Amino acid sequence: MFQGGLVFYNTALISEQDMRYIWTEEKMQRRALQFFYLGTSLAAMFDIPTTGDFLKALAQLLKEHESLTFPFNFDYVITTATLCDMIKQTYEKLYLELQKEHSWTVQTLDMFQKVDTRFKKILSLIYKEFEVLARDILVEELNSIDPLGLQASSLHDKDWDILANDRSPQ
Questions:
Q1: Record's superkingdom (predicted)?
Q2: Which of the chain's ends, N or C, has fewer CB atoms near its CB within 10 Å?
Q3: End-to-end distance of the chain based on CA atoms, in angstroms?
Q4: For residues 112 and 37, what is the distance between their CA atoms, to the nearest angstrom?
């Protein structure tokens, strides 16, 4: 989705330009920095051999993730795409470890749950931004067409959200 090749839940094709419009550099600098550090730290952790140690390191990293601060500017779109790829690779590593070990201890499962919850928090923030962007794109698309022949009408300037709620005959 970050590379503009996928449609967000079969509703809107989101391009990199669309993402850059909503995620301005000034607005997203702190988060881009946090995502950069998190993504590069995840890459370094793939060499940790045991699942328990890997999960402990992940939990500690995710705990420290929110306290990082602005040495230089990062590109938010690229940094976020890279972070999502690193999170995907982290889950792939954990899945492969589970396949090797066939079962995890209660301690390992508890640590996985903590890590999974923190990743989901980060990804839900990104998801919500995509959802808002997709909704804006859809409203713009719908406002650009005239399915009911309303161009001559005074209703033409209204948003589709308003039209959907307006049931009175014209």
A1: Eukaryota
A2: C
A3: 41
A4: 21
